[in-house]
Every structure is written in C-alpha cells, then in structure tokens.
Design goal:
8-stranded parallel barrel, 14% strand, alpha/beta, 44% helix, 11 helices, TIM Barrel
Length: 289
C-alpha cells in the first residue's frame, strides 16, 4: 500500500428532476477509473448518500464495482442511522461484489460510547469477508469516536481502518498511538495529503480529486520525493483547486460539465455556482483538468 493513498470520493449524477442518472454516474466512475488514484469511496458524503434510496444504493454499488474494480480499490459506504438498515446495506454491497465497506457512525440522535461500541460490534460480526472502515464525521453526524473507543473498535474482527473528516491532524496522531500498526487511517481533508504522513495517516479520501486528480497525484509524488520545491509547487496547485471547489458538490458537477463529463445536478438542496464561480472553475479546469 502506498504511504499516501488517494481515495477518490465519487459524486452521483442526477437528472434535472432529481431522478437518479445511472448513465451519468457510470460516466463519472469511468472518469475516476482513469485517474491513477489508488481507490474510490462511493456513496459517501460526496455521493449524497442520505438522499439515496436503498434500491438506488444497490444499483450504484453494482455500477461502482463493474466500472472501477479492474482499475482501483472500491470502498462502498453503507452507513445509515439504524443498524437494521446498515446490515441490509452490508448484504447488498457484498452481493454487488464489494470487498471493502465504510460505515459512518449513526447520526441525528446522540450516541454514547456504549451504543457506538455495540453498533460497530454488530457491523463487524456481519462483515465476514469484508474490510470495514469506521467513518467518523462529527460535524455531520453529531457523534464522535473517542480515542479510547477507537482503540477498542480497531481490535474488532474485520475492522481495518477509519476515515476521519474535519478533525485536526493531531487527532490522527492520537488514534495512531492506540491502534495496531496495520490499522489504516484516512483523512477527509483534501489539502492535507502532503502532511498526513507526519501524523500517522496513510492517505486522503478526496472529493475534489474526483474532478481534478492531477494536482493530487503530483503532490503525492512530490511528497514521496522529499523535494521541498516540488512539494511547495504541488501544494500550491492542490490549494488552488481546493479553494475554488471548496468541497461543494454542485461546484464539482459544474466542473465535470466543463470537462465534458455528464455529472448532472445535485439532488440535495445545494446552491448552483454563480457566474463568478463558474469563471474560476473554468480557470482551474484549464490549468488542472
């Protein structure tokens, strides 16, 4: 495994009326397959998973494995608020051919460490033959996996790592200090790809790299070289696309349109990019597309 994996968080395409655009979603997947990145994270936050039906998630899991598995790893996100739904989604992902899954902490209602422990123990028990990543996103779910709890979860069968979003790099160092050596930690902070190795993480799950993979590949290679000048130049390019896209799914889809990828629209309530933003997206597409 590369020391700085780039796992692409993949958007889902929707028609203007909000219906799932499976053909457009497959076009996105094929674009991602050609990126050279190490893997894909499908139906996560960037994939607007809360707005997907159970049936749509099955269709997208199957499409993701079909389009990507020959090119890169595929991590299928199967998170949901209830354990009952998660267990059904695990079975669905397995049937689609997935070998790696991610499970976000239950969300909306607050969960104690005890409740999270029971939840992930059940996830682990249901995941024979699958590699499971705990997905920690406190700012979206309201629930957090403490360092002490992560130490316990890391020992459960089938749980091999964690994807952690919008937490300081120091939290990765804290997790690393209590989990086994082989436990994988991914950050959700696109721009931190060059820094993560110093804090015990192995890579980034990046939505922006789904549209603009080239700056991220360049930064990973520069970081491996240790050349300070290359790193600074590559980091500047990553910062440019990160600042322009700003983690906004609607902007990602507008950028796809500029690159002739039919990504459609967002299903969730996201503001369309302004004319000024579209101009900036055109600039970065010309530079980094």
């Amino acid at each position: 495994m590369a020391t700085r994996d780039i796992i692409t968080a993949v958007p889902v395409a929707f028609h203007p009326d909000g219906a799932l655009d499976l053909d457009g979603s497959r076009a996105i997947l094929r674009y991602v397959a050609a990126s050279g990145n190490e893997g894909a994270f499908v139906m996560g936050t960037t994939g607007e998973f809360p707005a997907l039906t159970f049936e749509e998630r099955g269709l997208l899991a199957t499409a993701s494995v079909e389009e990507l598995a020959a090119h890169m790893r595929v991590i299928v996100h199967v998170g949901a608020p209830s354990l009952r739904e998660v267990l059904a989604l695990i079975a669905q992902a397995r049937e689609a051919g997935a070998t790696e899954i991610a499970v976000i902490t239950p969300y909306y209602l607050p969960a104690t460490d005890g409740a999270l422990r029971e939840f992930f123990a059940a996830v682990s028990a249901a995941s024979d033959g699958l590699d499971v990543y705990v997905y920690v996103y406190r700012k979206r779910t309201g629930n957090f996996v403490s360092t002490e709890l992560m130490a316990e979860l890391a020992l459960l069968p089938n749980i091999v790592g964690a994807k952690v979003s919008e937490e300081p790099l120091e939290q990765f160092a804290a997790y690393r200090s209590v989990v086994p050596d082989g436990f994988v930690l991914y950050t959700g902070a696109d721009r931190d790809l060059g820094k993560i190795g110093d804090h015990g993480a192995q890579g980034v799950v990046s939505g922006i790299s789904s549209v603009f993979p080239k700056p991220f590949r360049a930064l990973a290679e520069a970081a491996e070289s240790g050349d300070a000048g290359r790193i600074a130049s590559a980091q500047k390019a990553v910062d440019d696309v990160v600042d322009t896209v700003a983690g906004d799914i609607a902007r990602m889809k507008a950028a796809y349109a500029l690159l002739d990828v039919p990504a459609g629209v967002s299903r969730m309530a996201l503001e369309a990019p302004s004319g000024e933003v579209l101009t900036e997206l055109g600039r970065v597409a010309a530079l980094h597309g």
